[in-house]
Automatic annotation (TrEMBL), chain A:
The chain crosses the membrane at residues 12-37, 64-91, 103-123, 155-178, 211-238, 258-282. InterPro entries: ABC_transporter_permease (IPR051393), MetI-like (IPR000515), MetI-like_sf (IPR035906). It comes from the Bacteria. Keywords: Cell membrane, Membrane, Transmembrane, Transmembrane helix, Transport. It is a multi-pass membrane protein. This is Sorbitol ABC transporter membrane protein /mannitol ABC transporter membrane protein. GO terms for cellular component: plasma membrane. Residues 69-278 form the ABC transmembrane type-1 domain. The lineage of its organism: Bacteria, Pseudomonadati, Pseudomonadota, Alphaproteobacteria, Rhodobacterales.
TrEMBL record, chain B:
Belongs to the binding-protein-dependent transport system permease family. GO terms for biological process: transmembrane transport. The keyword Methyltransferase does not apply. Residues 72-262 form the ABC transmembrane type-1 domain. This is Sorbitol ABC transporter membrane protein /mannitol ABC transporter membrane protein.
Automatic annotation (TrEMBL), chain C:
One of its GO terms (cellular component) is periplasmic space. It comes from Marivita hallyeonensis. Belongs to the bacterial solute-binding protein 1 family. This is Sorbitol-binding protein /mannitol-binding protein. SUPFAM superfamilies: Periplasmic binding protein-like II.
């Protein structure tokens, strides 16, 4: 159907987006690469000459590097697991007939509208504060010692906060997918006496495959770079320092732009490894 | 035909769904409630739910301290401007990817998404220096451009998936009737794509509204949006839960209301092509 | 208009007149502390006097630091006045990034600034930032609980006495913790507190050759004392408590003692915010028996002008107004003497009305007891009490204090934390070429 004419028109139409994104990628990337080979310390007067691969070596050999990679993967993995599993359950529930469906849906998706800084502040202070937080009141009511969430269960707390923000997104996409499921097929299976679990694994889950892929892909992109949630709650203490946060510490807190830039290059590499990994595993779901 | 459902089952569904919905919504509800309390009531144990002296004092303190309307207006301009600009650039690109696909279309799409993986903080200095050079610091136009670029991959991808769902035969038929490319876009494609475009706009408006790294670091006064507004209320001295709640409520209320009115659109439209 | 002394050069005078005539707008970046927010409320008075409009960028401390540092190092020129501290000022001043404040008007009376503050905000004798308020740290305690426990707080307590008093006042049944101290990660939060505690146990960050000293017994002793004290008598989750968290605990009557910034005194004695306002006593920060250094720091929030601003004259005018004696009197007239910005001017402490404020004398004594040029028992190559005035310190100390906080939370042992601190500091100092 595509003629030569429409092909060149298509290219022309694609050009602005591609050129802009190419610029947005290349300019910072080139500058990051440039700085990563520099001994660039703003507080010591800026550019102090070439550093070779020093920054790269120093960044990985720092005792903070591997724990940061691990923390990043734990947070991304944890949030994905929680949001996908709960998202499926929630989507199935919301698909059922009920009274006030519209209002319930709004309640469920509302956290998605809350800016990350606000949600981190609200969770940290009004819920997780070990003295005045609502959880502490609740724990005391049941005669238990209040938990210091952000120090004793820091990583789980952050995973929880982030999951709360992203659960609506997963639920929304999965709900749309479930709604498109052919209900006759389900009914037929029900008639045949297939148990609920079998109906779920044989019909619903395969149907959701593509939606789950999308959820994982989009969320991973956003989760790899979460920052505000950590900045506001723990400041990277108690084993919550992700790779992004480590770069922040190097660039802004330690004012070592060269070292931070080398970290940035590692983060890009990590992101691409994760991306390739994702594509390999779930990529076939994206065709169609 | 829809399945016949007993009233009993519907009641169970309703109860369960409402319980979970309220649980998920509770932090927001609690924030809104707390914003109407005094500072002492905000931390009271046992917590007070409704039976407190409702006061607007926190709101007036916050308004006195910061010019809320200016922050709000900047948020609207930045989120709105970047979304509109993004749509203008993305529609043709997504159209051509959807209807004139080539072998590299998918690669280009995935590459576009991968540009979102560059950690923002790593490029703060380069971008800041660039903005100084271009005189874009603390300008709305600068923020609009950055927000647009950040969200462009998502916009392109969403639109692409919507466009793909439009049956090609309709376009063929339009072409047979002698429609030009422009007419095809304007009169055939656009009406069919409007629901998709609408939910794309919504999602990106939300994402741009909530972005808190660039909006905070590239602005000072003239272009500072609500993310900067909230940064002056986190951890001040003394008791602050009520004031923080008021500021938080002010920061999220506009987008929450927008979401409330457009939730049908969002629920129907946010597919990313997940539905065949 | 400000009446300007005839001593002023004609240039400065004409600049000021031009500035006023054009009705300039200056942009000020500041921290969201109570005194700064109060100052914002009086901006109109300044605008009326001078015709200069003021735009405020009020940010939380961490965000502010990140924001102004990026701007000053890249010469972004976003702000005409920046609120910075005693750590940044000498470093930035040495780099030539700040406008020297050496031509302030005679009426401003720069010699009235407390010597400790003036030294801390100068580089090689040149003042680069004017203190809006200054602080040291001291013990704040509940006189009623102290009395009930049958103890009397000495003017200058030791850590041993603090421990004893904490044990006596601790009352979990009444929700009263014996003592509240900072444990929150961050160089300016728990990092500052543990550094001065270290000083009072005879520890130091570096020896004269810039070798990190965390492997020394004094550090271990200080940390062990702190952790034991807090585990026994401190509040739940103290590892995440900073200044604000402790302030609110103390105001709610949940702490027997609190050792922290002297500026907190006016908040805990303010009956509007504090439930214990009428029963707070003050004492010098403690030391280990026999160690000559006490655990009190020195800090000032100060206003500085970034070099390169087009509005230098207006900015200077604002700084002269905000840190003047007149401003202090303005606040005193409207909100009472207890609420004026403390710790910046000698004349304030000579004012009869201010001497009646319960915490005035102890604040001044604490400030005078702190000497940034001689902070530790053993000699050190650096200036600064709760910080080390080198550019690498903020990042390094934040990481070190994160390791300490993890130890407070029981996630690692004190030995592990100290070993990691030693590694971090060694790594950073090697990278910086010391």
């Amino acid at each position: 159907m595509a003629t030569q004419h429409s092909r060149s028109a298509a290219r022309l139409m694609m050009a602005p987006a591609v050129v802009l994104l190419l610029g947005w990628m290349l300019v910072p990337l080139t500058m990051t690469l440039y700085f990563s080979f520099k001994n660039y310390l703003p507080l010591r007067g800026g550019d102090l000459g070439w550093a070779g691969f020093d920054n790269y070596v120093r960044f990985v050999s720092s005792s903070a590097f591997w724990p940061a990679v691990q923390t990043t993967l734990v947070i991304v993995g944890g949030v994905l697991l929680i949001t996908v599993v709960l998202g499926i359950l929630l989507a199935m529930l919301l698909d059922q007939p009920m009274w006030g469906q519209g209002v319930v849906r709004i309640l469920v998706i509302a956290p998605f509208f809350v800016m990350p800084t606000v949600s981190a502040l609200v969770w940290k202070n009004m819920f997780m504060d070990p003295v005045n937080g609502l959880f502490a009141h609740l724990w005391r009511f049941f005669g238990a010692e209040p938990v210091s969430w952000l120090s004793d269960a820091s990583l789980s707390s952050i995973i929880m906060i982030v999951s709360w923000q992203w659960l609506p997104f997963a639920t929304l996409i999965l709900l749309t997918a479930i709604q498109s499921l052919d209900s006759e097929q389900l009914e037929a299976a029900e008639m045949d006496g297939a148990p609920a679990l079998a109906r779920f694994t044989n019909i619903i889950l395969p149907h959701l495959g593509r939606a789950i892929t999308i959820v994982i892909l989009i969320q991973t992109i956003f989760l790899l770079s979460i920052f505000a949630e950590i900045f506001v709650t723990t400041g990277g203490a108690f084993g919550t320092r992700t790779l992004t946060y480590l770069i922040f510490q190097r660039v802004l807190e330690s004012q070592n732009v060269g070292l931070g830039s080398a970290g940035g290059v590692y983060a890009i590499i990590l992101a691409n490894i994760v991306a390739i990994f994702l594509m390999r595993i779930v990529g076939k779901n994206l065709d169609a | 035909m829809a399945r016949a459902v007993t009233t009993q089952r519907k009641a169970i569904n309703t109860t369960l769904a409402w319980a979970i919905g309220l649980l998920i919504f509770f932090p927001i509800l609690w924030t809104i409630l707390t914003s109407f309390k005094t500072e002492a009531q905000a931390i009271a144990n046992p917590p007070i739910f409704i039976g407190f002296d409702w006061t607007l004092e926190n709101y007036s303190i916050v308004q006195e301290r910061s010019n809320y309307m200016r922050f709000l207006w900047n948020s609207v301009i930045i989120a709105g401007g970047s979304t509109i600009l993004g749509i203008i650039i993305a529609v043709p690109a997504a159209w051509s990817m959807a209807f004139v696909p080539s072998k590299r279309t998918k690669d280009i799409l995935l590459w576009m998404l991968s540009t979102k993986m560059l950690p923002a903080v790593g490029v703060l200095y380069p971008i800041y220096l660039l903005f100084i050079q271009l005189g874009l610091l603390d300008s709305r136009i600068g923020l609009v451009i950055v927000m647009m670029l950040i969200n462009l991959p998502i916009i392109v991808w969403m639109l692409y998936t919507y466009f793909r769902e439009i049956p090609g035969e309709i376009l063929e038929a339009a072409r047979m009737d002698g429609a030009s490319l422009r007419e095809e876009l304007l009169y055939v494609l656009t009406p069919m794509a409007i629901p998709g475009i609408a939910s794309t706009i919504l999602l990106n408006f939300i994402l741009a509204w909530n972005e808190a790294f660039w909006t905070l670091n590239l602005t000072a006064v003239d272009a500072a949006p609500l993310t900067a507004f909230i940064a002056s209320y986190s951890s001040p001295e003394g008791l602050f839960f009520a004031k923080l709640s008021a500021a938080s409520t002010m920061a999220i209320a506009p987008i929450l209301i927008l979401g409330w009115f457009s939730q049908k659109q969002l629920v129907r439209g946010l597919t990313f092509g997940a539905v065949k | 208009m400000h009446l300007r002394s005839a001593l002023l050069g004609a240039t400065a005078l004409s600049l000021a007149t031009v500035a006023a005539a054009q009705a300039e707008t200056i942009t000020i970046a500041t921290v969201n502390n109570g005194d700064m927010i109060r100052m914002q409320g009086y901006t109109d008075t300044f605008t009326e006097q001078t015709g200069i409009e003021v735009e405020w960028v009020t940010l939380e401390e961490n965000v502010l630091r990140q924001r102004v540092t990026t701007d000053i190092t890249t010469k972004g020129g976003q702000f005409d006045i920046m609120t910075i501290g005693m750590y940044e000022t000498p470093i930035w001043g040495a780099n030539g990034w700040l406008v020297p404040l050496n031509d302030l008007s005679a009426e401003y009376d720069v010699d009235d600034i407390l010597p400790a503050m003036r030294n801390g905000l100068s580089h090689e004798g040149t003042l680069y930032a004017a203190p809006f308020y200054g602080e040291s740290s001291m013990v704040m305690y509940r006189t009623d609980l102290m009395e009930a426990a049958g103890l009397e707080m000495p003017e200058a307590p030791t850590w041993e006495f603090i421990r004893e008093a904490a044990a006596a006042m601790d009352n979990p049944a009444e929700d009263i913790n014996g003592i509240c101290l900072r444990g929150k990660a961050g160089w300016g939060e728990g990092g500052a507190f543990i550094t001065v505690t270290g000083n009072s146990f005879g520890a130091r960050w570096f020896d004269e050759n810039w070798t990190p000293q965390f492997d020394q017994p004094q550090w271990k002793e200080a940390l062990e004392f702190y952790v034991n004290l807090m585990n026994d008598y401190g509040p739940e989750g103290y590892a995440t408590n900073g200044f604000n968290e402790n302030l609110s605990l103390f105001q709610q009557g949940k702490c027997g003692m609190w050792i922290d910034a002297t500026v907190a005194a006016s908040f805990v004695t303010n009956p509007n915010d504090s439930t214990v306002a009428d029963s707070v006593g003050f004492a010098l920060a403690p030391n280990k028996d026999g160690v000559e250094k006490r655990a009190n720091w020195l800090w000032a929030w100060a206003l500085a002008i970034p070099a390169g601003t087009q509005k230098e004259a207006s900015a200077k005018q604002f700084i002269e107004w905000a840190t003047s004696k007149e401003y202090i009197e303005l606040v005193a007239a409207n909100e009472g003497w207890a609420n004026v910005p403390p710790g910046a001017r000698t004349s304030l402490y000579e004012t009869a009305e201010y001497q009646e404020v319960p915490f005035a004398a102890m604040t001044l004594d604490s400030i005078n007891a702190a000497d940034p040029t001689d902070p530790t028992v053993d000699p050190v190559p650096y200036v600064g009490i709760q910080f080390v005035a080198i550019p690498e310190f903020a990042g390094m100390a934040t990481e070190v204090s994160q390791e300490f906080s993890a130890a407070y939370a029981g996630q690692q042992s004190i030995d592990e934390a100290l070993a990691k601190a030693q590694d971090i500091a060694t790594e950073v100092m090697e990278a910086a070429g010391y």
